[in-house]
Structures are given as structure tokens and as C-alpha cells.
Amino acid sequence: MYKTGRTSEIFTKGVDNFLKVAEANRVKVGTQWIWCPCLICKNFKRFDNIQEIEFHLFQHGFTHTYTCWTRHGESIFDFGTSSINEGNNENDILNDVSDNLNDDNLNDDNLNDDNLNDDSLKDMFNDLENNLGEKDKEKLEQLFDDAEKPLYTGCEKFSKLSAVLKLFNLKAKYGWSDQSFTNLLEVLNDMLPEGNELPVSSYQAKKLMCPMGLEVQRIHACPNDCLLYRKEFENSHKCVTCGESRYKRKKKNDEYDDDVTKNGPAAKVLWYFPIIPRLKRLFSNEKEAKLLRWHSDERINDGNLRHVADSPQWRNIDSKYPEFGNEIRNIRFGLSSDGINPFGNMSSRHSTWPVLLCVYNLPPWLCMKRKYIMMSLLIQGPKQPGNNIDVYLAPLIDDLKILWRPGVTVYDAFKKEYFLMRAMIFCTISDFPAYGNLSGYATKGKLACPVCEDDTSSMWLNNCKKTVFMGHRRFLPSGHKYRKNKKDFNGKIEKGEVRKTFDAFSRVENLKTVWGKRKRVEKGVIWKKRSIFWDLPYWMHLQVRHCLDVMHIEKNVCDSLLGLLLDIPGKTKDGINVRRDMEEMGIRKELAPVEEGRRIFLPPACYTMSKAEKTKFCQCLHDIKVPSSYSANIKRLVSMKEQKGYSPIG
């Protein structure tokens, strides 16, 4: 139909069939309006005169992406199927015409880049229409009306909705507060002609766009992290574990209302953003659906490690679960979590924990972009959940179980078909303390190494009051020269070997965990809990379940090195206590502290820099020039006066 031109007999027949379907749907629904699917109107405008729509279609042509006529009575679940009722004229017409709607190219001069803009209102409405329930259809109809309504009488460039979206995009981009946005709307309202449609407050603007948002669940939690008030605890007023009230109470003896919504604010809240609707929305956009196939269709497979799909674990999953690996559209997530302070550095005690998911199906230059990172959970502070993070992960794990088996039926806008989508957690990414919270391993104390477990080589420093791990040479080959080098290490020959891999699940399989902050972990216990990730059927078959975030490691190492080289107070690893500990160990005797009367002198080490060397080093950092967008402005991080040379970020 599109391939032939608007003067062909096939196009004429297709338009006639479409008009019959549209008219039949108008009678069926009982409305006087019909949406116009021409290239100009794009289902944003509707008319009561069907001849006007016919004129538009012959003048401008069909919108090339409108292949399933959901605005004119066709159900998206019936599109492309072969089971058509022979006695239903309307379905026969749709079946005849749908074969002509799958062509990628439209021979029309009006088709330009603007028509292919994936961020257009049309694509947003298509996404919404496929994901909204019946109760939200009225809101969507109002949204369509706002998209047609001009911003003011005679305005042709902006509609009421497009103007609000444009302004709200600026608000998000530059971090405007709600109050500043409200003030801006008030000023713009005064500038525009009388009777304009622009909202006058941030609240009204958000309410206008509410159907575009995704579902969010606000789940009450025990303030001691014992449980979530969901499922069997949904109507409970107190925690069954610790007895704490579900709500913020001024008096302990305050009575509770049977209606949980009338008892005041919750003591702690978990915000859950369901991932299934977000995945459906990704696949309902043709461009995004194509990108989700990149790892199979466009990735260069030459043995080099450029992407997660090049890793052995990706191939092992495909081999272990061929029914999962054969469907290239199945999603593999990376899960990450860490504590943040939303109030800046002024309130150092506050810790809010977001749980983020990144989609590894995407190409490497997109999978870590903010647009494609999903915040699935937001755990309210001010205290971090710690090992009780499993309590808050429960809603996400429930959805992940569904996504693994049986899966979810999703419409693929790129292939124009439905398929059964499945998803899994490929690995977690975190810093070392968060790794302990997610995995259940005790990452503090003398047995903190998760590789060596109870065979960890550690030492307590009496002066520094900390545990250090000096057995890292055991990971070297047996004949390596460093194994016999006593002088430059801990004064001993290293004979230890790397511990053989062990089955982590066998360590935690029978662990019984009581959630909450008031319990005390027994001393010497290296596994604190059975992580909730073990509830996922595939978790025990993953080779690498938890990964450490390179960014944290690099930053910490860089901070330590620069603090040591420039002797920054509070940042340097050198000092009187370190020298005394080395003296007790019998190593680096030339660096032992020297007492001269009441004063103690620390001999300079090989890394000690003179004042002139520090100045030269800081000057080098101060004057360095890098390409645009390569890094932050290093010049601002250098203090030439104090010769600190480095001001750590984050």
C-alpha cells in the first residue's frame, strides 16, 4: 500500500478498506469523531467528516509506523495473527490491508527526518497506548486533547502539551526546583496572551503529564529493617519481629485505625519502580527494540573482550539455558547499589540506597547511559539497610522470578510481533562493603577475603589499630621471584597457594537469618546470611555473581597514592604509627622512627618529595590540558598555595 504511490489502485483500495474499518468502529464505539492517520495529523487530530480524512490520506499519505490500527478498533493482540473469524467483515478488511503495512520504505516526498523522530509525541503516545490499563484510557484521551489544543488562540508552533513538555525538559536538564519552575510558569503566563492554556504551577504541569509516568509502588517498611508491609503483613500495624510501630507516633499508646491509610505517615518507606512495564515500553519503541538486539546482530565477535557479551559467563549461560540464549531479545541485567547522601555533605549521617539496573543487551556506549539505567528501588534513609538489604530487594526478586519463568509477553515494535520475554541478573556491581551486604559474606575483620575465606592471611597492627592482609603473593606463580623477596614485603618467604574454588551455596544453604538491626552476629562467622539472590533459579550456576566497581577502587587507590606522595594531612598512609608497626615486624629498619630528645624524627622514604618537587608536581597538574569532555577541570582541584595538589571528589 505504501510502496506503490498514492495514485495506484492498491493504495486506493487500501484507503477504502481503512475508511470502512474506521466508520464501523465509530458506530461501534458510539462517537462522532475519527482520528486521522495521515502523515501530517499522525492521529493527533480527529474529524467528524470521513471525507476530510480521505482527502488527507490521498494528499499526505499514511503514517508509515501506524501498522496496527489501535485508534480505529483493531486490537494489538490480534495484529499479525492468522486466526481470523471468517464471518467478521471488519477483521477480514484488517487482514487484507495489514500485509501492505509492513514495508519499511514509504515512497512519499513528505517523509523526512522529522517524521522519523523517536522522541516525538506520536511515539510517546504509542508507548502509552500499549501500556496503559482500561482505567487510564480517559486520562489518555485527555492527553490527546491537550496535544491538539493550541497554547493560545492562533498559536501554531506549540500545543498545550508540547509547551509543558519543552519546559519540563529544561527543568530536569538544569535542576530547577519546583518553586522556581512555578515562578517561571507564572511569569510566562503573564507574558502570553489572555486565555492561554499554560499551567500556572509545577503541580498542574505534573498532573497534566501524569499518564506519561510509569507505575511506582510506595511500600511501608519496619524502621528496623525487619520486614516490608506487603503480602501477609499488608494490614499489620506493628512489626511482628521487633514490635516497632509501622507509623510515626508521638505517643506509644496512640490507637490505630483499621484503615492503614488513616494512621499517619509511615516510619520508613521503600519506593519500588516495577521493571516489567519499563521493559515493555523499551520494546514498544522501534529504535530501542532494535538496539536491544545489538549484542547478537551487530557485535563484532572476534574473540576480543569489548562487551559483556564477549565474556565466558555470557556463553556459559547460553549453553546452560539454551531456551533462554536462543531468544536474543531476552534481557540480561547488571544490578548495582550503594549509599548516597541526597542532602550533600552537610548531613554526613544520612544514607539513602538506590538499586539500579543496567541493560547489557545494549551496545557498550549506551548500556551505561543514564537514559537506559533503571532505578528499580529507592530505600529510604537516614540509616543504611546493611545486611538487611534483602528485605527491600524482595519486590524486585519477585518480578525477576516471573521474568525468568514463565516470562512476560511483550510486543516488539522492531519485528512487529509478540514474543515471550525473559530476563535475568547477570551479575552485581558494587564497592567492597556493599558487596558484603549483597552477597552475605563478612567483608570486615581478619577473614575478610571472599576468595580465601577461612584461609585468609591477615595481621593485626597494634599501633594503627587495623587489620592488614599481607598474603597477596600467594596468587603469583610458584616460581615467581617475589615469593622469596623478604626485604620488600613482610619479611617472610611466601609459600602459600591459592585456595581451590568452593561451592558458595553449600556454605549458606542452611543458614537461618532473622532480619532487623537489633541482632548481633556471632564472632568468627564469615557468612552472615543466605542472600536473597539464591532464590533465583539460575544464581548457583553463574561463575561470577558479584563484581567490584573499578571506579571505587581506582579512586581509593589514587587518593591514597596522592595523599602519600604529597603528605596531605588525613590522607597520607605514612606516619609514626605505621613506622612503629614496621619496626615491630622487623622490616624496613632504615625507616624506623628516630628519637632525638623529646622529638621524634621520621627518616625520609623513597617516595618522600621535597617542597620544590611538590611545587613542580602541582604545577604539572595545574597546567595540564586535556580534550573537551575528557575529564573534570583538574586545575580547580589543585591548590598551589597549600601544595595539596589534589582535592578528591565524591
TrEMBL record:
Concerning InterPro entries, the annotation shows:
Transpos_assoc, Transposase_21
A Pfam cross-reference name:
Transpos_assoc
Taxonomic superkingdom: Eukaryota
| UniProt domain Transposase-associated: residue ranges | 1-74
Name this protein carries in UniProt = Transposase-associated domain-containing protein
* Originating species: Tagetes erecta
